[in-house]
Amino acid sequence: MSASALGGMALFVEVMRGFMVLLGTAAGYWLARDLVPSSPSAGGIGAMLGVLIGYISGGLLGRTTDRVLGVVERRVARLPGPQLVVGALGGIAGAAAGTILTLPLLLHVRPAISIPVAGIATWVLGALGFRIAASHSGDLFAAAGLSTRPLVRAEAFDPRDGYLLDTSALMDGRFAGLLDSGVLRDDLFVARFVLDEIQGFADAGSEDPRARRARRGLETLEHIKSAGAVRISVLDDEMPEIAQVDAKLVALAKRLSLRLLTADAQLASVAEIQGVPTLNLRRLAADLAPAVLAGERMMLRIIKAGREPGQGVGFLDDGSMVVVNGGAASVGAEPMEIVVSSVVPNAAGRLIFAKPAVSLRETEASSGIIGE
């Protein structure tokens, strides 16, 4: 047990002992006076005995009561952490309840006895109210519609806190699939400036691919809210001192001690360098995607030319890029059969190199003719 905890227990016990001494003194004095009315010194002797009994019983009662309160505290320790303001309000409520409960005693019993009893009840119920209210502060804040997320916390980046989403994650088509599959079950947070950026992309034009992805991202948010599988919240926190959206997002994640969920490999690297835990959506999807092995055949649509002459580029359903050597002539055509040459892991997940199956068969055929 820490020194501060021992000090708190000692203070609680001594306060309880003080009330019991007062109660014992008063009770001993009046009891001795009533039992031996003819003796003038009976009241003093009874008061001294009451002091002794109150001192001993107060220590025992104080330690027992503190242990009982400790049990209650440990049982609610797994709930949201204590907040000083909520704990103080709970203590005031508990003390008020103790005063109200002992009010009949104060009105009908001698003050020398009723006041210490009322003091004990007020002290115990006030301490209990403080501990319970502080341990339930998160629920109480939520019921009042207030934020439970302080700017500085003892345990940064608690895994239970959820993820702060960036624009690329919301616009990624795999994001909704990971949610529906149950892979992502943590709370999700979206900054207002990220929503504004996505809305700006969505309004750019119907033919813009980025606009289509942005609209899909907004539809995904609506789907999350309606499905209710995970909780999603919009944060109105603004970072006016920072202009760039990605820099704002990293700063906000650090400020709120939230993990970052992104599909941007560069943003993930920058966030990790600044100490923000990051989940790369592309890397997660690639890890969950079926393995692709060298020599495997598959059908692929070539959608654009590659960097090198003759290369064509396509994408698998999981978003993995496939570079097809000799596939430039098939850009925009029907899906073609390819043979995987190699698979290279990268920051975005994996990069697949392949060749057209037709050219491979021609090579094999020519090799056979030469062999003959």
TrEMBL record:
Gene3D superfamilies documented for this protein: 5'-nuclease (3.40.50.1010)
SUPFAM superfamilies assigned to the protein according to its UniProt record, in alphabetical order: PIN domain-like
Bilayer-spanning residue ranges: 12-32, 44-63, 84-107, 113-134
Keyword list, A-Z: Membrane, Transmembrane, Transmembrane helix
Keyword Transmembrane: yes
Matching InterPro entries: Nucleic_acid_metab_PIN/TRAM, PIN-like_dom_sf
Protein name: Unannotated protein
